[in-house]
Amino acid sequence: MATRREKCKYCKTGYLVSIEAQSITCPKCRVSVHLPHKNTSGGFSPSVNSDVNMLPISAGFSIFNNSILQSVASRVQQKVNDKVQRVQSLLREQALLPSLQEQKRAVLCGVSYKGHPKSLKASIGNVSIMKQLLIEKMGFPYANVIVLTEDEKDSSRIPTKANIKAAMCWLVQGCKGGDSLLFYYTGHASKVRDTDGDERDGHDEALCPVDYETEGRILDDEINTTIVRPLPHGVTLHAIIDTCFSGTLLDLPYICRVNRGGYYLWENQYRRHHSTKGTQGGLAICISACDEHQTSGDTTTFTGSPAGALTYSFVQLLEEEENLTYGQLLDAIRNKVHEAQKAANRGYPLAYHLWQEPQLSASESFDIHLKEFIIL
């Protein structure tokens, strides 16, 4: 049988493979490696999984023909999926992911965009106080709280698109009745043109990983598919999203509209798509920094140092108060955020347009004045 020599691009181990082989599992690091196909001229041509020239995903894409856009997007998504699989494989092999035996698991993601003109100063601190709350107050096992920031020494814990998606997959992997999951994100977000017709305003909301300019954003559709839809009966997911345009970032079917008198109404966001936006019987609840058309911000009002207005308010309330209902929690968070904004906007009477209103959304409706906020 004709063979050729190849080298693993991760551990650099050399080995012989069949000349017809398209992929192989490295005998040393156990990562699946895609091989180039041999062409009839005797050289090698790239396989379908080879790197493609990446383009930043932005509003500028609207100038392209839809078929070209879909083709590029498909190739980009394939590349990201391959990276996610490789990261997960490496994490399992190196035992970097914690055990799935514990009932409580969390993924905390903070993106600072170091060196970027729009870098964020509060993200690292936001993640730090959230982690402290979960471990010291909520009883999350230290090993079951995954942190992704640019300060992490482990490359698999940098908040790239592939690493964030791999961490989200781990969060729900093998979850069962009684499990309590939490996903936290602080960083930038943006709106991109909706391509599947499920958004009333014609735009998807999207998270911006640290490498979003080359690898692309993580759409709300992807987040819903990854950490909402798989939830079986008895599993509860809480998401705390401290970013702009975050009101519907999990694409949950219901968003809670509350007036100043405390009266509320659950609004169905996706009547046509309800069956595909919900869970498999579990419960998903999201507390977000603002409505889907609003921006959010950091503040120095609370401590003198930059902090996410939602994050700090959420953490402080849960450290000081117990037995809060969702209605009480949402109302108290809004009051604290408004207090910070009033302090920041003193002397700027036209700053009302920057107002942010924290939101509550869920996979199913419930009585927010009776249901207690509990992370079991």
TrEMBL record:
One of its GO terms (biological process) is proteolysis. Residues 104-362 form the Peptidase C14 caspase domain. Belongs to the peptidase C14B family. This is Peptidase C14 caspase domain-containing protein. GO terms for molecular function: cysteine-type endopeptidase activity. GO terms for cellular component: cytoplasm. It comes from Lithospermum erythrorhizon (Purple gromwell).
